[in-house]
Amino acid sequence: MKRVLSGIQPSGQLTLGNYIGAIQNFVKLQETHECYFMVVDLHAITVPQEPAALREQTESVAALFIAAGIDPAKASVFAQSHVPAHAELGWLFTTLSYMGELERMTQFKDKSSGKESVGTGLFVYPTLMAADILLYNADLVPVGDDQKQHLELTRDLAQRFNQRFGDTFTIPDPYIPKVGARIMSLDDGTKKMSKSNPNPGSYIALLDPPDVIRKKISRATTDSGREVRFDPAEKPEVSNLMSIYAHCADMTLDDIAARYDGQGYGAFKKDLAEHVVAKLEPLQRRYADIRGSGEIHDILKRGAEQVSAVANETLRAAKERMGFLLPR
Ligand code: ATP
Ligand code: MG
Question: How far is the CA of 14 from the centre of ligand 1 (A)?
C-alpha cells in the first residue's frame, strides 16, 4: 500500500483554504493508502507563538482532523513534537541544504518581507518539512499549491542524500487538488487565504459561527462590476468566491455563473454564505463533541506510538549511512 503523509501547522484557526486544499484529500486518501497526518507544531514556532495558544491550537487542529472525517482507526494522527526523530533528521537535512536554494523559497520571501528581523527557523523550515516527509518514506504528499516548491526541494534533498550516501529515501510526489488548490484571501484576491493572517476578515475559519461567516462573506472584496463570471485574471475575488461556492454547494462553475446571470453580487454572496454555513455545520458539531470528550489526547498518543518505529528506523539508517558511530 502506498504511503501518504501531510501536516498542518497549529499557527492559528484552520481555514476553508486548509480544508479545501488539504484536509478533504486526507479524508479521501485514508481509504486507499497508509496515511500519516500530523499537527506540525515544530513548524508553527518558526513565527512567534504564545505558549498557551500553541497548546490550544495543537489540540484544536488535531480535533478538527477527526471532525473533518479522518478516522484514527485508518490513519495515524499525531503531533510532530511527540516524535523526536523529526527534529533530528531535520538537522541532518539542514546540513545538506544550500543558502541559495532556501533563499529562493517564495514562502520564506512572503513571510519575511517587510520584517525588521527574520528568524532562522523560518529560513530553514523547508529542511524540517523534508525530514517530516522522508522520515516515513512517503510516496504521496497531499498539499495545497503553495507547498509545491517545498516539495520540489524535498525531492532534491532526498536525491542529494541518496547520491552521496546510497539509496535511503523514497522520492515523494505532490498530490494537489485540481480545483481549490489555492483559495485566496477574502480581502485581497492576489494573496492566498492564510490562518496566520492578522486580519480575521481575510479568512473563513472552520470554527467561525454562522453569523461571523455571513458577515465575512458580505464584506469580502469584489470588483466594481456585477457579473458573476469565473475569470481569475480579470476578476480574482469573484472567481475565488465562485470556487468556494462550487466546493461547498457541489456545483460546477458554469452552473453558478448561469444561476446568478444578471443578478449582481448581492444574491450570490448571500447564497454563498448559506452554503458555507451548511457545509461547516456538521463539522462544527463533531468538533464540539470531540473536544468535550477529551479523547484527542489518547488519539495523539496512540498515533505517535504507531509511527515511532518507522521514524526511528529511517533515522537510524540515515545516520548510519552518513557515518555516525551508532551506540552499540
Ligand atoms: P500559515 O499562514 O501559518 O502558513 P496556512 O493557512 O498557510 O497557515 P499551513 O499549515 O501552512 O496553513 O498549510 C497546511 C496545508 O493547507 C498545506 O497543505 C497548504 O498547502 C494548505 N493550504 C494553506 N493555505 C491554502 C489555501 N489558501 N488554499 C489551498 N490550500 C491551502
Ligand atoms: Mg502556510
Answer: 9
Q: Is the pLDDT of residue 180 over 90?
A: no
227: Cβ contacts below 8 Å, ≥ 6 apart: 235, 238
Catalytic residue IDs: 111, 192, 195
Distance 16 CA to ligand 1 centre (A): 10
Q: Is 262 left (phi over 0), alpha (psi -120 to 50) or beta?
A: left
Question: Across the chain, which distance is largest between two alpha carbons, in Å?
Answer: 76
Domains by residue range for the chain, with CATH = 3-176+294-322 (3.40.50.620), 200-288 (1.10.240.10)
| pLDDT tens by residue, 287-321 | 999 999 999 999 999 999 999 999 999 999 999 99
According to DSSP, the residues that pair with 174 across neighbouring strands are 141
- Alpha-carbon distance of 124 to 110, in angstroms, equals 14
**Which ranges of 95-234 would DSSP assign to H, the alpha helix?**
99-103, 106-112, 120-134, 148-165, 210-219
Cell numbers at 145, concatenated: 499549491
- Calpha distance 31→257 (Å, rounded): 34
Considering every ligand atom shown, identify the ligand nearest to the alpha carbon of residue 179 and give its number. 1
- Give the ligand whose atoms come closest to the C-alpha of residue 19: 1
pTM, 2 dp: 0.96
ipTM of the predicted assembly exceeds 0.90: yes
Cβ of 240 less than 6 Å from ligand 1: no
| Ligand 1 neighbourhood includes 177 CB (under 6 angstroms) | no
Integer Cα distance of 140 and 175 in angstroms? 6
195 ligand 1 Cβ < 6 A:
yes
Q: Which residue has the cell 469584489?
A: 222
